[in-house]
Amino acid sequence: METDYDVVIIGGGVCGCSVVFELTQRGYRCLLLEKNDTLVAEASSGNSGMLHTGFDALEKSLELDCIKRCQSRIFQLTEKLGVPVNKIGATMVAWNQEQLARFPSVVSKCAQAGFSDVHEQSVSQLYQREPYLNRRALGALWIPGEAVTDPWLLPILLAHDARQKGAQLISSAKVESCDWDGTVWNIQSTHGTFRAKCVVNCAGLYGDIIDRLAGRSQFRIKPRKGQYTIYDHSAHTLINSSIVPVPTDIGKGVIVFKSVYNNVIVGPTAENVESRQQAVIDDNICERLYSVARDTVPELNKYNIVGRYTGVRPATQYKDYVITADQDRNWVTVGGIRSTGLSGSLGISELVRELVETRIGLEPTRGQYLTVSAPNVTFTKYGTAVIDGHEYSVKHPLTFVGKMQNLSKI
Ligand SMILES: Cc1cc2nc3c(=O)[nH]c(=O)nc-3n(C[C@H](O)[C@H](O)[C@H](O)COP(=O)(O)OP(=O)(O)OC[C@H]3O[C@@H](n4cnc5c(N)ncnc54)[C@H](O)[C@@H]3O)c2cc1C
Predict the structure, then answer these.
(1) Ligand 1 centroid from CA 302, angstroms
(2) CA-only gyration radius of the chain, Å
(3) Which atom of ligand 1 lies closest to the CA of 189?
(4) Which residue's CA is the nearest one to ligand 1's atom 9?
């Protein structure tokens, strides 16, 4: 099988789905190749489903730029597509004097980065919003812009929109080699060989391996596992915002939050691991998550745990994203999208489009098709969603538990 495309996108996680959405809208003839038998099945199926504002992102980073770009577009788009969003806000809690002492610097860093709505609150204001919180809190910061969404439906509907506009999405197509003949890429996959004028590498945990296929070596993936517990829906009255710890150099820490379907979740942890594959649930980590639950919202331990899951972040040796374009060989890399890929998705895709348009200088072969409308989505009890007649397997535990729990109530 041999076909010509403007752009081949390798990888159907949240980054690949956003990129195929964006480029197809702009008139590029796109093909997305995914090695699994379904989209959104790796890093993007193991996240928290949060749309972060970027308040704690590295100053002047690509990550912050992408999150800000995404924030300016995402809420309009989720509304058009019919993707649920809950602007729940986040409460950062100081449990000791050392954490409390860091608040002024967090607030001033936020103000410098444009988040002037992040502010300190008194303990009494804190307990007014969060009456079930452990009474040991010494202070709080209110971060109003933080939101949660359906982390599976959003990328799936982006890819689906592209499909409806003529993009091809092929699963069970593992890319095995990429050869540049001076004008065109020949992409060999387990589903056939395809020709494209430009390639966008969105291969997540395998991003460095795919870059090497094109003779590039910019970063190394250092997988970082996260683990969660999911509490029964009936616990949702125990919190009114996402309860976040004061961040450290190694990450955001374990959060107690509600999914967009109102399940209370505790996680994620952050552990460096060797394997890039789906990580196993670790009992010791479960114990740690129980103790975070108990220390944060003591009542939570009276509620049933309805599930556990893990995710693996495509971290690298760098803290920032790696998004680059090789203009001599029409290759764009979207790498190391470690812990904010959902929050940065539409910013990443916008940046990729700019690189394709200006750095690569590729003209689209079709006309623009910017209109977006809500598709017809029906979740089934078999763990799938039928979207405009196409069946997609639900791979994210938060969507699965949230929607299946609602289905069982019908
Ligand atoms: C525990 C955890 C918590 C997180 N919480 C949040 C959060 O709350 N908010 C947020 O914004 N972000 C969060 N993230 C980060 C977010 O999930 C990631 O940034 C995002 O999923 C990365 O997306 P991706 O498309 O780069 O990678 P992936 O989702 O891994 O997609 C890459 C795809 O490429 C495919 N692929 C690889 N090799 C090949 C090949 N040879 N041929 C074809 N296809 C290939 C893979 O199969 C995969 O489907 C979290 C991540 C984790 C793990």
Answers:
(1) 33
(2) 21
(3) 42
(4) 50
Mean pLDDT across 123-141: 97
- pLDDT tens for 37-49 read 999 999 999 999 9
For residues 360 and 332, is the Cβ–Cβ distance under 8 A? Answer: yes
Running DSSP on this structure, what letter comes out for residue 218? -
Say if ligand 1 is within 6 A of residue 42 CB. Answer: yes
- The verdict on the CB of residue 263 being under 6 Å from ligand 1 is no
Q: Collapse the DSSP code of 406 into the 3-class scheme (helix H, G, I; strand E, B; otherwise coil) and give the result.
A: helix
Strand duo 242-245 + 90-94: pairing: parallel
246 lines ligand 1 (CB under 6 A): no
Using an 8 Å Cβ cutoff, are 85 and 340 in contact? Answer: no
pTM equals 0.97
Q: Where are the alpha helices (DSSP H) in 58-205?
A: 62-81, 97-101, 103-112, 123-129, 153-164
- In contact, 387 and 377? CB cutoff 8 Å: yes
Pocket test for ligand 1, best of 205, 209, 285, 392 (most atoms within 8 A of CB): 205
* Residue among 320, 30, 374 at smallest CA distance from 194: 30
41 lines ligand 1 (CB under 6 A): yes
- Which residue from 225, 359, 319 is spatially nearest to 279, judged by alpha carbons? 225
3-state secondary structure of 78: helix
Q: Is 97 helix (H, G, I), strand (E, B) or coil?
A: helix
Cα-based angle 130, 106, 64 (whole degrees, multiple of 5) = 100
User: Does the CB atom of residue 159 touch ligand 1 within 6 A?
Assistant: no
CB 168 within 8 Å of CB 8: no
Q: Which residue has the tokens 């740690």?
A: 288
Ligand 1, atom nearest to 42 Cα:
30
**Is the C-beta atom of 223 inside 6 A of ligand 1?**
no
Residue whose C-alpha is closest to residue 307's, from 279, 281, 269: 281
Q: Report residue 268 as tokens.
A: 């994620």
Quote the CA–CA distance of 228 and 371 in Å, as a whole number: 37
Q: Which domains does the chain have, with CATH numbers?
A: 4-52+151-221+318-369 (3.50.50.60), 90-144+222-313 (3.30.9.10)
348-400 residue pLDDT tens: 999 999 999 999 999 999 999 999 999 999 999 889 999 999 999 999 999 99
